[in-house]
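In the lab's daily routine, each protein ends up as an entry in a very long ledger. A line of letters takes care of the sequence, but it says nothing directly about the fold. The three-dimensional part falls to structure tokens, numbers that each stand for a local backbone shape. The outcome of that step, for a single protein, is printed below.
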Amino acid sequence: TARELLFRVAEGLDASPDSADCQMKLWPRIEDALAENRWQGIATLLVVDDADELGPDSQQQLVRLARLESDPAARWTLLLTSSPDSLERLNSALLHLIDLRIDLARWSADDTLGSVQNALVEAGRYEPIFTDRALDALHDLTRGVPRHVARLADFALLAGAGQQANRVDATMVEQAFAETKWTAACAGEAR
């Protein structure tokens, strides 16, 4: 709901919202927190994942939030994610406020492999932990959507750790995928 959105924004801004606050009480808290950040020179970023899934009231609140600090010196940024085919569900006023749109292409199998290997090396794991078939399954089940690749890889690693396995195989990836309750179509939506 719009109230939940504003409550979470106020919470994220450390504006001390009360669980009983209505929208009218949340707005001044948000405005004050943003003004404080502006005066302190603190950049503020609001990230809304799956913005296209918000209802009309919540989208209208995003428009209002975007317009709170129009001065570039405020360093107030909204980052919205949506699947390209769902943009028509966004409020037209919200669409007009977009300064930069970036469409992410799905990864190739090589991109998926490289991302997983890079993440493992950054975590301190230099030996392969995913079998080749597991990496193929990871790519196929997520259809190369970057955030789903990362999430499913994490879930599969947790499954492997839970089974005290030395390697993550395709079966573990498939079981982790089944646990996510994603459909292949949902996992394949580009975001």
In short: The longest helix spans residues 23-40. The first strand starts at residue 44 and ends at 48.
